[in-house]
Write a structure and sequence with these properties.
The chain folds into two domains: 124 residues, Rossmann fold, CATH 3.40.50; 77 residues, Alpha-Beta Plaits. 44% of the residues lie in helices and 22% in strands. It is built from nine helices and nine strands. The strands form three sheets. Strands 7-8-6-9 form a four-stranded antiparallel beta sheet, covered by helices on one side. Strands 1-2-3 form a three-stranded parallel beta sheet, covered by helices on one side. Strands 4-5 form a two-stranded antiparallel sheet. Strand 4 and strand 5 form a beta hairpin. Helix 3 packs parallel to helix 4. The relative contact order is 0.10.
Length: 258
């Protein structure tokens, strides 16, 4: 327990207590006392930016400040591992950004495990992701690697225009499809002589080849950027694949019996 700090979704606060009184109470429960306890209270108040509410009643603090006090109590004993459960749930956008910055700052001193269903939160905050479906780990990797695995390569958005003359979208599609590694070219939208294509590839880093092909063909290259699947899309894809595998196994066993 000494090595772990925990912040549940609802911070475990006693609303009638004063902030520093509460932190002192939690610190004593964690085995701190005397000068060490005083030092740790000062440290966590500064680290979590709650020094200005040290003498305020917890019940009168905003949701954002209560969340910070919750983080302060979780690190009062300087644990090696910090477990946070939905740390930004119920916060407004400003409070969410402040809490994210605070968590990133704490990552330098603690190993942080973030448990959340808010997947954009994971993209903004985490370096490593573990996806769990029905109690089973289905993926462990960085967000970037998960995106590559889910697509099997890279997806790129390219916007081109015809230069002095017009252009035939089918000519563009065919030219881009000829590039090594490109698996699919789709026209996404067109307006005022500008055409946007999405190119899917079987490998990463085809952007240089795409740019050279557009310029060599005499077209204007207005935009070239990688597009990524969201973590929500990746989660749904992985959990569907897991469900499909489980469905196939009983069917295969039944076929063997027949």
């Amino acid at each position: 327990k000494r090595r772990i700090g925990y912040l549940p979704e609802t911070p475990p606060l006693y609303h009638e207590m004063i902030t520093d009184e509460y932190l002192s109470f939690v610190g004593k429960l964690k085995g701190l006392s005397g000068a060490e306890l005083t030092k740790r209270i000062e440290h966590v108040c500064e680290r979590c930016a709650i020094t200005d509410v040290k003498k305020k009643q917890l019940g009168k603090l905003s949701r954002g400040y209560r969340q910070r006090v919750g983080l302060a109590q979780a690190i009062i004993h300087n644990p090696e591992v910090l477990i946070l459960d939905e740390p930004t749930a119920g916060l407004d956008p400003k409070q969410i950004n402040e809490t994210r910055d605070l968590i990133k700052g704490l990552a330098g001193d603690h190993t942080i495990i973030l448990s959340t269903h808010i997947l954009p939160e994971v993209e903004q905050t985490c370096e490593q992701v573990v996806i769990i479906n029905k109690g089973k780990i289905v993926a462990t990797d960085s967000v970037r690697n998960l995106r590559s695995r889910a697509r099997g390569g890279e997806a790129v958005i390219v916007e081109v225009a015809g230069g002095d003359g017009g252009l035939e979208t089918e000519d563009v599609r065919q030219r881009l499809a000829q590039i090594a590694g490109v698996s699919n070219v789709t026209l996404k939208e067109s307006h005022d002589g500008h055409y946007t294509f999405e190119i899917e590839s079987e490998k990463d880093f085809v952007r240089g080849d795409l740019a050279r092909a557009v310029v060599a063909s005499g077209w204007e290259l207005n935009e070239l950027r990688a597009t990524a699947m969201s973590l929500e899309e990746i989660f749904l894809q992985l959990t569907r694949e897991e469900a499909a595998v489980k469905t196939e196994k009983p069917a295969a066993e039944e076929a063997k019996k027949i």
